[in-house]
Amino acid sequence: MASVSNVTARIVEEAAKCGVKLVASLPDTWISELIEAFDKDRRFTHVPVNREESAIGLCSGAFFSGTGALALMGASGFMTCVYALTKINYTYQIPLLLLVTLRGGLGDRAKYHVSNGLYLKPLMDSISMPCTIVDSPEKVSVISTAYAHSRVISRPVVVGFTRGVLRGEQ
What we know:
The protein is α/β, with parallel strands linked by helices. It contains 8 helices and 6 strands; from the N terminus they run H-E-H-E-H-E-H-H-E-H-E-H-E-H. Helix 1 packs across helix 2 and helix 3 runs parallel beside helix 5 (82-90). The longest helix has 15 residues, at 4-18. The chain is globular.
């Protein structure tokens, strides 16, 4: 079983390896340690935002300045961003890396997140959003692949994290 701190450190290192300099996030208990790690790491400018759409706008604007960015949020927050993603990123071909919690999936103990587990994947499929799942600590390195792929296709790519990985419950 990998510790939360170890997985957090691996995620942060992988983001740095990609050239990410800006991280925009919204709170979620599964990623609280990860948010704190990005906030404290001098290699990153961490911007807590008040709405998920703000993270999309901020990170998309950063692309035009040549700044690598990622948006970090929960599944329900991601689902509120469909208009922003399709209007901004799809229309203007702006790559973006999104790290998203897989709320409502296996291992989520919060009954009120069930709808996230039911609708997240179908929602992503409906807008042809590429997504890869990190369900073991060994798969954290896919972040670099997803970041590069977003640049190749000039569109957003989601990396979804299970509770087990983010909370060290493997």
